[in-house]
Amino acid sequence: MTTEPAPQKGARRSAARWLADPFAALGRRAIGWVNNLGAATIFLSLATLRIFRPKQLMKVLEQLYLIGAGSVPIIMLVGLFTGMVLGLQSYHALVKFGSQGALGTLVALSLIRELGPVLTAIMITARAGSAITAEIGSQRISEQIDALGTMRIDPLRYLISPRVAASIISFPLLTAIFDVIGIIGGYISGVMLLGVNAGTYLYRVESSVDMKDVTDGFVKAIVFAVIVTTVCCYQGYFAHTRTDSYGARAIGRATTAAVVISCVLILIADYVVTSLLI
Amino acid sequence: MATPLIEFKDVSKRFNDKTVLEGVNLQIYEREITTIIGLSGTGKTVLLKHIIGLLKPDEGTILFRGQPLEKIRKRDLPMSYMFQGNALFDSMTVFENIALPLLETTNLSRSEVRRRVMARVEQMELADAIDKYPSEISGGMQKRVALARALVTDPQIVLFDEPTTGQDPVRKNAILGMIAQYQRTFGFTAILVSHEIPDVYFISNRILALYGKSIVFQGTPEEFEDFEHPFKEEVVHSLEGLQKELTGLHSKRQFKLRYQGQLRGGALGETYAVAVFSLDGLDAVAAALGHDAAQEALRSLGMFLGRHFGAIGGFSTRHSLNEYVTVLPMTDRAEAEGIVGEYIRDLQAQEQAILEIWAAAQKQSPSDACVELILLAGLAHGHPDEDIDAVIERARREQNVVSRIRCINKGEDR
Questions:
Q1: What value, to the nearest 5°, has the Cα angle with vertex A229 and ends A224 and A230?
Q2: What end-to-end distance do the CA atoms of chain A give, in Å?
Q3: Spacing of C-alpha A25 from chain mean position
Q4: A240-273 b/e with 16+ CB inside 10 Å = b?
Q5: Which of B49, B81, B84, B151 should be substituted to probe chain A, the one whose Cβ sees the most A Cβ atoms within 10 Å?
Q6: HEC string of A116-170?
Q7: Would you kindly state where each structural domain of chain A is located, as residue ranges?
Q8: H/E stretch holding B20
Q9: Which of A15, B17, B75, B262 has the maximum number of C-beta atoms within 10 A of its C-beta?
Q10: What stretch(es) of chain B map to CATH 3.30.70.270?
Q11: Which homologous superfamily does the CATH classification assign to the domain defined by B6-242?
């Protein structure tokens, strides 16, 4: 008679661990996310409170120039081609129903309600957000932020608050520029290239857009501004605490993370805000 | 003793599983230069960052004038910190870097800020660099910009994290001399982390030795000479061995070892002579011509001393900031006086060479000031049963002016 050997205690334990480990890792990751969310919220709150301290005006103006004015050309370029492609695609869809006269309505509402705020925020993330993370991350790694602390200069007030203020001001303005240029782009492709009546196009734009559409677009732009600056500044400010890399590589990873997280959060927030406003 | 300005009581600090400081107890007193020495990576910078509040202890208490540090508002802590890597803002010019703490933490007018910054710029010999960015200037200049920024707010306590790293021997001693001079002038408390053994001894009032995660010695540099501990063997002697001495002379320890060796071997004879040479007026040279020029003068004298007395069997060391000691074995008083007299004549004959070295250092300074350096010398006789320090002290008391060198600038009136 043969007897099967009883499973050993250690083997049972390792099997249990093999089953539990993925859940533990998931749990740790979830806790990490919640911790980061809490820390980022406190970070944003403290930075926002410091916007109204003395000696901030010049720093806010400087950031307005870097984030806002510096982004105008790229926003205009992207807005123009977005409007043009929107006009082109919409024309070919509408012409099937003989309603190409509604092109102005479609272009204007698509841009003002949706594409304008979202694409503007994504373009600013790519252009200014990545620069913010890289700059602050580099200042952190080279101890410049510590140096501010030793000089009794509050790093949040000096580095973060002006960027938050400048973003909240410049995002809606850049969105407005994007919208206007996009509508002009739709005009170029729809009216000038495809032959839609100019008067009809402009009349439809004017008659279909309500003030609420514009303000809703601005609300989205402000929400995106808060998200982008918080994520980008936070990633740079805490680049030295990354566990996956150090030094210059940590700055690179922080910048990548800032852009990816910002873009994902913009799209999620877009749905949430739209569902609340609609 | 007076109440310590800063006191650590059983301070411990860990980073994840690694303990960096364990049960650290130390006292730092007001208006002194305190130097923390220890090997790299033993927690000296961590200790310094606890003082400025960049790090908090996991255990223990840090007291500032008897009050727990964490209960004191940051703006009530009149401290400044000079980082090892300088931590200059690379997107700002030298002027903007130095002006930053004044612009951000005071309500001074722009003209007053400019005046104060320019005063520091001139003291640090940075006038040519004010519009340049940190990446456009040398490492030594970056160090001086960081020092200027640390001092521009007239802090009561200045923390220096390895201020001389990466500098050549002359520049190292120039920076240490600069710290010592400003400490005397402005009366701040200086806390240094340094590897520059033995050079830091000459400017420090107190030495703290960090070894094995805790402080194993605190006291004066003289007391540290007699400190017996594995720290001395592992840290001090290894660092001394690595140092490229400013003058090329023996370190104090090597000097004592040679003295004791010759004493035991009878090479010192029945009587030996000790000569103490001091150079006065270095502060004036530093103020008028720059710290580099002062260090060049000191270096020239030391090298000349080593060459001259080495050739006849003597051995010398730099004993303090501006003082050299030479032992002349088997020499009676008459012989010693003759040898020292010969040295003085030789030095005066060589004066032109020394002036040229100073002049080279002075080229970087816009000043045309006339300064005077005074060389003092004193002689004493020692016997084999006598303590060398007592003989040195006797020689010091015998010091007289033996040479004056005036207006080394432009060579107008020597």
A1: 100
A2: 77
A3: 28
A4: bebeeeeeeebbebbbebbbebbbebbeebbeeb
A5: B81
A6: HHHHHHHHHHHHHHHHHHHHHHHHHHCCHHHHHHHCCCCHHHHHHHHHHHHHHHH
A7: 43-277
A8: strand B18-28
A9: B262
A10: 252-406
A11: P-loop containing nucleotide triphosphate hydrolases (3.40.50.300)
User: Among B48, B52, B104, which would you mutate to test the A interface (most chain A Cβ atoms within 10 Å of its Cβ)?
Assistant: B104
Count how many pairs of residues, chain A against chain B, have C-beta atoms within 8 Å. Answer: 45
**Nearest chain A residue (CA) to B152:** A151
Task: Please give the average per-residue pLDDT across A258-269, as a whole number.
Answer: 96
CATH 3.40.50.300 residue window(s) in chain B: 6-242
A142 near B CB under 8 A: yes
Average pLDDT score over residue span A224-247: 92
- Tell me, yes or no, if A63 comes closer than 8 A to chain B by beta carbon: no
Picking from B53, B81, B104, the nearest residue to A153 by CB comes out as: B104
Q: What is the rounded CA–CA span in Å between residue B341 and residue B26? A: 48
Tracing tokens 């492709």 back to the chain, one arrives at A189
Contact residues on chain B for A149, CB-CB shorter than 8 A = 52-54
Residues of B in contact with A162 (CB under 8 A): none
A62/B contact by beta carbon, under 8 A: no
ipTM tops 0.90: no
Q: Which residues of A touch B81 (CB under 8 A)?
A: 147, 150
Kindly calculate the radius of gyration of chain A based on its CA atoms and give it in whole angstroms: 25
Cβ contact, residue pair B87, A147, below 8 Å? yes
Nearest to B249 by CA among B173, B307, B331: B307
Is A151's CB within 8 Å of B80's CB? yes
Closest CB to B83: pick one of A55, A147, A152: A147
Beta strands B33-37 and B79-82 are: unpaired
Q: Tens digit of pLDDT for each residue in B305-337?
A: 777 787 777 888 888 778 888 888 878 778 888
Inspect the interface and report whether the beta carbons of A150 and B75 lie closer than 8 Å.
no
Are B11 and B62 spatial neighbours (Cβ–Cβ below 8 Å)? Answer: yes
A55 vs B contacts (CB less than 8 Å)? 103-104
Residue A3 clears pLDDT 60, i.e. is over it: no
Kindly give, in sequence order, each residue whose CB lies less than 8 Å from that of residue B143, ignoring residues fewer than 6 positions away: B86, B163, B164, B166, B167, B175
Strand order from edge to edge, sheet including B79-82: B79-82, B157-161, B189-193, B33-37, B206-211, B214-219
User: CA angle, B36 as apex, B33 and B40 as ends, to 5°?
Assistant: 145
Task: Name the stretches of chain B with pLDDT < 50.
Answer: 242-244, 366, 411-414
Does residue B72 belong to the interface with chain A, where contact is any CB pair within 8 Å?
no
Total-model pTM:
0.74
E strand or H helix at B193: strand B189-193
By Cβ distance, the residue of B54, B104, B149 closest to A146 is: B54
B328 bridge partner residues: B273
**Locate tokens 């609340």: which residue?**
A276
* Three-state SS at B181: helix
Chain A: nearest CA to B178, how far in angstroms?
Answer: 21
CATH superfamily of B252-406: Reverse transcriptase/Diguanylate cyclase domain (3.30.70.270)
Q: Does A247 touch chain B (CB under 8 A)?
A: no
Average pLDDT over residues A6-34: 81
**Span B154-196, pLDDT tens digits:** 899 999 998 887 777 777 777 888 888 888 887 899 999 987 7
Rg of chain B in Å (alpha carbons): 23
Residues of B in contact with A159 (CB under 8 A): none
B85/A143 Cβ within 8 A: yes
